[in-house]
Amino acid sequence: MDTLESGNWRLEKTGEIDYSLHVPTNCIIGLWLIKIRVDHDDYREDLRVLFNPWCPEDEVYLEDETMRKEYVLNESGRVYTHGQMCYPWFFGQFEHRILDITLYLLDKSNLSTSAKCSAVFIARALCSIINHDDDGVINGRWQEPYTGGYDPKHWHSSVDILNRFYRTRKQISYGQCWVFSALLVTITRALGIPSRPVTNNFSFHDSNRTNICEWEIMHDGSVKSLDSVWNFHVWAEIWLSRNDLPDGYGGWQAIDPTPQEMAEGSSIAGPAPVKAIKEGAFHLPYDVAYLFSEMNSDISYWRRERDGQFGKLIKFDELKIGKAILTKQIGSEESENLISTYKLEAEKKEALISTEEKIEIIKAVNPGVSFVIYEHLMGKKPSVEIKLKVPEYVAIGNDFQYSAEFTPTEAIGAAAEAKISICIFVSTNVGKFIGQIAKHDFHKQKVSKENALKGKVEYIKYRRFACASYSIKIFVTCQLLSPNEGINCDFVTIPFFCRPPDIKVISKPPYNQGEPVDIKLSFINEFRFGLSGCYFELSAPRMKPKAFGIKKGLGSGESCYIHLQYKPKRFGDIMLIAKFGCREITVACGSLEKTRVPSVRKSVDLPVNSGSSAIFATHGFTIPAKDFMSTSYLKLISKAIAGSEKLLKISSQSFPESGRRAVLLPTRPPDIKVISKPPYNQGEPVDIKLSFINEFRFGLSGCYFELSAPRMKPKAFGIKKGLGSGESCYIHLQYKPKRFGDIMLIAKFGCREITVACGSVELDVAKKAE
Predict the structure, then answer these.
(1) Tell me: the pLDDT tens digits for 269-325?
(2) Annotated active-site residue in 22, 205, 233, 619
(3) pTM of the prediction?
(4) What is the DSSP pairing of strand 9-13 with strand 453-457?
(5) CA–CA separation, 714 vs 162, rounded Å?
(6) Could you report the per-residue pLDDT of 351-402, keeping only the tens digit for each?
(7) Nearest by Cα to 456 from 498, 403, 412
(8) Number of neighbours of residue 743 by Cβ within 10 angstroms
(9) Is 662 exposed, middle or buried (0-12, 13-18, 19+ CB in 10 A)?
(10) Coil, strand or helix: which one is 12?
(11) Is 177 marked active-site?
(12) Which residue among the candidates 86, 117, 177, 758 is catalytic per the annotation?
């Protein structure tokens, strides 16, 4: 029988001993046990069923091949922070053990078995287990000190975090929004769900569902925030068809894994269709209203009088939140602004949304709040326009300059005077006040564009607050003096910045898998103070991060460098990430993108991993089989497999175009060759060669062969050195048959990283002469 069908399952014979399996698109995602019976012998293997973005019937289907390459297959990328600043990140979804860790997290989430066929439910469950307070993957902290853990900027690899968590089974400390987002991208890509990190500049944390951020301006011109405006916030997007929603809401879905206190008490936000967020379709699941407020909220500024009582509402700013929404471009290291997919573009917002429409949107978010007090300022231009000019960032240790221009409206006239206050302070990235740097008051300042106020902030003023996790805020208020008495205010944020180390590849291309590449790491101390306890750290795929200490300190203006070698253990595009650290500043990271490494063997189109990780392209015995059972146990009885070819066989292939991916993870068996020529006689030695090729993308350690035969105790033969990716090993030995007839020799290869692989050969042994 060439085809075997049971419901939506279909098994097809594609060769003498090869079978291909169609797994239905409603199959439960996770680890299955497969049992194959051959001539009364049972073989058990683990089978992993994943989503398939190449299959049109799968809910994660992504038609565009370039998007699949970027959002499913790409193992590295960038996570943007403030403006164009970003962290290089190694997602590593195909790294050793990452798939098994992902499936462990899925089981740990206590998601019901029936719900594991839905990408929506799986994504929400993974968010929950990432950010769980007690036993999640990583613990969040948004302010120093990071006692008992690492500064969130220490991390630049999901693989490092997930492996630490899996090894210790303890929550890792600490992370912030970009770390939570990058972890979710890794584990969703490992399951086959297209995903990407997305960064919102100036993001509102709406815990009370008003869609309005309330800020107080004190009587002396200083500001106090009642609600949290984050300098930036990172969430993730996953690509789903959303068959549970009306037509048109498939595609990118926003999902926020960062633990936050939401109005409903949940710490999970999404997945919500990006289209629904833009339209304000708050009735659709999940958490559209909350995600809408993160980038579409408004800021109201209230005046607090000297006696502590609230005065009037002085400004309603509709343009500050959600200034830019960034992600990495496909096939490029540049950013792409997604603002038009989430909201009406800032420069068009006033013209396209009337006051009435704005009030209706806010009421839809929270019908219990009265908005009469805001109406008179919605869409109204202030009497004086304020324009702040500041640098894009402040390099720690440097002075910086700023200017504030004031332009009165025609109704006010050019001779107007005002009381102006400029307050400069430091806050965390989530908006918490840390300390004031300076405050300047001008009691009778002529208001005109020509009379711009300029200032300089010296390093000595802010050095006790200098930290790459913080930023400087400049807040300006301008109150016109009688008879006009109009008032306006504005603020700007300037992040602190540490220049990353420079990475140079000295060796000239081409770079070959397994061959050393010379690399130079260098760093210039541009700070005005010396650095001590300095070190470099290099990270790359299939390599544990390696640290290199610098013996002496680094004075102001001095530089340091090291030369080292890196052997690529895989082929394709590789990102190298270099880190510089010391006692005085937080970590600075640089990256070298797209180092192309060709394969020393025949190249393949898709990344193929084995061992405890994912094979995204398999062929041969990828077999759940005849019967689908609710116990997640599959059984196949097949007589088509016979003779010495009982072992499972793998070869690289593209994704199946139908059904979900069934991922079987055996290893290629060792090769066993009989060197002696027949006939083989009872009691006479037979020369045998056992060999094995490491086709994995990671090295193997603790390797050994083992030979078993009738009338012989199994003998093990250790391999002294490890086996790198693409390397081979072999041994020669002799075997004396102790009986005649058909004899099967079974060779076994084992190591620490993978389960045992077996090969076999049969001998026809002649009876010993009398």
Answers:
(1) 889 999 999 888 888 999 898 898 888 888 888 877 777 666 677 787 877 888 899
(2) 233
(3) 0.77
(4) unpaired
(5) 38
(6) 445 556 655 665 565 555 555 556 656 666 778 889 999 998 888 878 899 9
(7) 403
(8) 21
(9) buried
(10) strand
(11) yes
(12) 177
